[in-house]
Write a structure and sequence with these properties.
By secondary structure, the protein is mostly beta strands. The chain contains 2 helices and 18 strands.
Length: 325
């Protein structure tokens, strides 16, 4: 999916006439200038195709094996663009049933027919996902994030300068210890969507109850930094926040923030990072009477009702603006 955004500036000039007595005359020399304006364009192509209708297929994967999908995004215009991607419409199927699969699922195999088994086809929960955009590692295999963890969540890939390129590489690693004979012959299909937008835009519309949180640079343009520091919020009645790359042994609050500064703060959930900089907190649900932006901030930088300090390079911010239902 690719969207085009137009930017335009319209300048309106006003001419003021001064009226004097009819008997007075002045020498004059009127001049007229012509003004023009043009709209910039935001447009991308993928692997030389615009629109992109590519397809990828990974066949015959077995436990501990990895399949790879790689493509190149080209910014066809002169304006820099920020690009996001997401994997959606994930569907799994039991596919071809074999004797080992049938028995692993508690069934009986006779005359090439399986009976009494309890089908299991959720290979999306045992397939690790890693993502590299250019030289930036957004997710690594060691992060142990599965397709089920990241599906339908928009992930920022970074900024592509005018007429520039960005190579995106994704790997799909079927976990060895977690993948038994029940997965034999199973299939998984999904869509890969891309969204390009001018810098400082709000980002793509939220598609699900999953939100990617990332740290930002300290420069005025507030670019996201793909450096292994991130968070994923899955909200709902038993919502969960997982994050890594944080400061070790530090208290954090997941908040909603409403302008103007120092803002109105609502604390959704809180936790303390481990010595490895990882954080996992349950019962995080921003739909429970909250509104505003979603940030992960230091517990010491807010009093539960407003911000008391501002250290943005130590926080995580929502990667795209969210309308909380």
């Amino acid at each position: 999916m690719k969207r085009t955004i137009l930017m335009s500036l319209l300048v309106i000039g006003a001419v003021v006439a001064v009226i004097v007595g009819a008997t007075t005359a002045y020498f004059s020399d009127p001049e007229t200038a012509t003004g023009t304006f043009s709209a910039g364009t935001i447009d991308i192509s993928v692997d030389g195709h615009n629109p992109w209708n590519g397809s990828f297929e990974m066949k015959d994967l077995k436990p501990s094996e990895t399949g790879t999908i790689e493509f190149k995004i080209h910014n066809t215009g002169s304006n820099p663009v920020v690009v996001w991607k997401h994997i959606g419409d994930v569907a799994t199927d039991t596919g071809v049933v074999t004797e080992p699969e049938c028995e692993d699922e508690g069934g009986t195999w006779a005359s090439d027919i399986c009976t009494g088994n309890k089908p299991k086809d959720d290979i999306d929960t045992v397939t690790n996902y890693d993502l590299v955009a250019g030289s930036a590692v957004i997710f690594a295999d060691a992060d142990n994030l599965t397709i089920a963890d990241i599906q339908s969540m928009w992930m920022p890939l970074g900024t592509i300068p005018g007429h520039g390129d960005l190579v995106v590489k994704q790997s799909y690693h079927m976990r060895g210890p977690d993948t038994g004979n029940w997965a034999q012959g199973d299939t998984m299909t999904f869509d890969i969507d891309l969204y390009a937008e001018q810098r400082l835009g709000p980002g793509p519309a939220q598609l699900s109850n999953k939100l990617f949180l990332d740290n930002k640079s300290g420069d005025p343009d507030w670019y996201f930094v793909a450096d292994g520091t991130w968070g994923i919020l899955t909200w709902g009645s038993s919502g969960e926040l997982v994050a890594q790359g944080l400061e070790s042994g530090t208290g954090y609050d997941l908040i909603t923030y409403v302008e103007p500064w120092p803002g109105t703060v609502g604390v959704i959930c809180s936790g303390t990072s481990g010595s490895d900089g990882k954080l996992s907190v349950s019962n995080c649900d921003p739909t429970a009477g909250y509104e505003g932006k979603i940030w992960l901030v230091l517990d010491s930088d807010n009093d539960g009702s407003q911000m008391t300090a501002w250290q943005p390079t130590r926080y995580l911010f929502e990667s795209n603006l969210v309308d909380i239902p």
